[in-house]
Amino acid sequence: MTRMKTYATGLCVVAALAASPTVASAITAQAPAPAGPAARTVTAAPAPTAPAPAPAAPALPAAKGPSAQVRTVAPGERVHAGHGVRLWLTEEGKHWSTPGGGENFRSVTDGNLDLTTPGVTHQAEGGTKRVFHSGVHYGTEDAARVTLTDETGRTTDAALVELAGEPGWGAWYVTTPAGAATHTVTLLDSAGRVLAQLPGRAS
Prior knowledge:
14% of the residues lie in helices and 38% in strands. By secondary structure, it is mainly beta.
């Protein structure tokens, strides 16, 4: 009887030992032992890059209207002056025609202009909607701009044309809305200095 109890006890110990790895494995799988602090590589976030400053805008030249550059034309070359008007120059002076078929002429050789002194002339014609202005500037090689200023203070730049060489004169033209009672015509050089002025007159 004593031998059988000892044998039974031994079986229990062996069974317990045999079961121990399985239990240990199960515990290890369910709750792993905490590992030491894992080494981490921390990469610093790049500092935000400030946007590159926009390139500075180039300085703009002073606006001088269409007359900032004087157009050189050949004798008899027709210039489209707008609204059906044609303008051309000859050695004798300024010519222009209107849509109605009329043709006009302003002489620079009839002795009525002193080509040795800066000056400007003004002719105007039109209807109820618009007026065509033109004239001759003369007596200076520095002419670069012609303006019309009406009685309300509104200023309009004219276009300038001239023959090649140094004729000592040129022509200007511009179209304005009808309605202004008078216009003052001013001749200026490229620096804005007044060379000559024709006081306000009815258009």
